[in-house]
Amino acid sequence: MIMATEQTSKIVTVTPKAAEKIKEFMKEEDSKAEYLRVYVQGGGCSGLSYGMGFEKEAEEDDIVIEEQGVKLLIDSYSQDHLKGANVDYIESLMGSGFKINNPNVTKSCSCGSSFSTE
User: Fold this and answer.
1) Where are the domains of the chain?
2) CA dihedral in degrees (9, 3, 1, 104; nearest 10)?
3) C-alpha distances in Å from residue 23, one per residue of 51, 52, 57, 72
4) What fold does the segment set 2-105 form as a domain?
5) The pTM is what?
6) How far is residue 5 from each of residues 8, 9, 54, 55, measured CA to CA in Å?
7) Contact 88/18 with Cβ under 8 angstroms?
């Protein structure tokens, strides 16, 4: 596990609304999770997709970033794909949920569930 430095701390940022929801969901889950893992994995029609989940402890290759009072885990594979990304929480008539705004995306599928980067 690597604690974020000034250089790595802006790999991913979290909006105040997203941080509020993350804390709320962590409390509801009551699993004693300390971290939110944000990751990129292979899959979907454009090649990559996002994943999020609660974790109790960090892995060896994780960077730990603290944003808005929330501790994020980013694994070494996901770091390059997420550099500069922002996690937000959207509420609209169409539904609500987390949205990752990622400046590295060069192409995404029409359904919006997968993407590719350079």
Assistant:
1) 2-105
2) 0
3) 17, 14, 16, 12
4) Hypothetical Protein Aq_1857; Chain: A; (2.60.300)
5) 0.78
6) 5, 6, 22, 21
7) yes
